[in-house]
Specification:
Helix content is 26%, strand content 33%. The protein has 184 residues and is α+β, with helices and mostly antiparallel strands. The protein has a single domain, classed as Oxidoreductase, molybdopterin-binding domain (Sulfite Oxidase, Chain A, domain 2), CATH 3.90.420.10. The strands form 2 sheets. A 6-stranded mixed sheet has the order 2-3-1-11-6-7. Strands 4, 5, 8, 9 and 10 form a 5-stranded antiparallel sheet that branches. The protein starts with a helix and ends with a strand.
Length: 184
């Protein structure tokens, strides 16, 4: 019997590799690159609008950079072990750096307007992404987070690593069920 599941995994692996190569080339060519991002093939997890240089979709009000899971993973997964005000105990939070996502779309500005599936919205200072390198978490303890478990994307700050982050203001910026960022 042909193991179709195995084939599916292999195809996904090749795709992640291809997208990773694209972003590596893009970063290597640097500021001169002003082309399109590849279009998402899977379900769109994140849509970025506003002051960005690289886009791949038309949305109401202009252009957007949309990412599916493979495109996000291709930016490089990182893991953070920390407590979090919304969940009991210490957990391994894995995802991509918000700063890497902003770099990939050529973002610049002062504020990120983060919006979530439940309608929650908060302004996050642009510099938070570089000062504290929060993650857009996709997995907790190796398990993909779904909408019912605050996924598919959850902004998680390194709360246990940086003393200044043990402050309610960063709890309000810890957006779960994140769906979009508007760069202003
Ligand atoms: N999607 C979404 N993210 C959110 C919120 C929310 O209502 N919706 N509340 C914020 C606030 S005010 C806090 S304090 C933290 C923790 O909220 P929780 O205790 O309900 O998890 O999540 C933040 N992220
Ligand atoms: Mo809160």
């Amino acid at each position: 019997m042909i193991d179709l599941r195995g084939l599916g995994n292999a195809a996904a692996f090749v795709r992640v590799g291809a997208v990773a190569l694209f972003f590596a080339l893009m970063m290597w060519t640097g500021e001169a690159w002003a082309g399109e991002l590849p279009a998402p093939q899977g379900k769109v997890l994140l849509s970025i609008t506003g002051n960005i240089a690289h886009t791949n979709a038309d949305v109401s009000g202009g252009r957007a950079a949309q990412f599916d899971r493979a495109q996000l993973e291709a930016l490089g997964m990182h893991t953070l072990e920390t407590t979090n005000p919304s969940i009991e105990g210490v957990h391994a939070f894995s995802g991509v750096r918000l700063s890497d996502v902003l770099d990939a779309v050529g973002a610049s500005g002062k504020v990120l307007v983060a919006r979530a599936l439940d309608g929650y919205s908060v302004n996050i200072p642009f510099d938070d992404a570089y000062d504290f390198t929060p993650l857009l978490v996709m997995k907790i303890d190796g398990v993909v987070i779904r909408v019912r478990t605050k996924g598919p994307l959850w902004i998680v700050y390194p709360v246990d690593q940086v003393e200044a982050l043990k402050n309610e203001i960063y709890s309000t910026r810890s957006v779960w069920q994140l769906k979009s960022l508007d760069v202003k």
